[in-house]
Amino acid sequence: MQAGQTGLSCALYSGVSRGLRPTARGERVRNYDLEFLKKFSMVIGLLVVITLGLIALAAYLQRAVPDEVSPTAAKRVQQRIAPAGAVYAGATGASAQAAAQAAALAKAASQSAYGGTTDGKTIFNNLCTACHTTGVGKAPTLDHSHWDARIAQGKDTLYKHAIEGYAGPDGGIMPPKGGNPGLTEEQVRATVDWMLGNLK
Asked: Domain of 51?
């Protein structure tokens, strides 16, 4: 037994003298392997520290720099949070109210066809003349012979057909509002009145 122990201690001693160290499993690790592991561990640790530092810096910069808001989104937000009404008081308020009403009328006029005009002749010449002067699509021209039966039904029926559209028994088709949905009902009525007043 002593001879075996002596042989093992001699082997360990000779391994240490040659730069080898015993491990837990009895394997031998060379000194330069230990040096590599120490340096590699230090590099990995340094990289972990740098990574954590970069993450912290990015988080700080994200909070420090405000987000850029697009002009379109900002405009939509302003429209959504604009007050539904306004309070006008005194002389300054009266002039502000008049300006607001004028702006609202101008906006409404710009959104309706032909600037919101109720001049039947203007609307007829721009929209209706294509069909009602030539009879395209069996549209009645401005002749009494084409309109007398229609007039007998009453103006309200004519207005309704012009506003809502109509498909006649003869195959003639009147599109709603003459095919221009931007027309107001008042504009359509004014145009019908102008047409009835200019029959030949």
From this structure: 2-63
